[in-house]
Amino acid sequence: MLLICTKTCGTCRKAVALLEERGVEFTYREYRQAPLSREEIVEVLEKLGVGPREVLRAKDAKKLEIDPELDDEALIDAMAEHPTLLQRPIGIVGDKAVLGRPHERLLELL
Fold this sequence. Notes:
Strand 3 (90-93) and strand 4 form a beta hairpin. The mean pLDDT is 96. Helices cover 35% and strands 15% of the residues. It has a single domain (2-109), classed as Glutaredoxin, CATH 3.40.30.10. The radius of gyration is 13 Å and the shape is globular. The chain is built from 4 helices and 4 strands, in the order βαβαααββ. The chain starts with a strand and ends in an 11-residue tail after the last strand. Strands 2-1-3-4 form a 4-stranded mixed sheet, with helices on both faces. It is α+β, with helices and mostly antiparallel strands.
């Protein structure tokens, strides 16, 4: 499993603890230090089966003065430029992904 997270997020820390507790092997990607490219964001959205609005962190969009009503392409561009706009944690296994909110949702990938 690929786990897209950040160490400063409480839900991400819970997700890591849950996966470790269950003995699940995963690769941790600190998305602030290794941001997703625009192409990766598009791929993740496809695997999640959602549009960018469904994974947009509204508080961060407001702080950055990004209009959540932008079209999908503009939102994806903004997410590529400002990684904190993307909800986390996100777990990916093969062609499937889940948003780990709550963090137990990651178990759906097992």
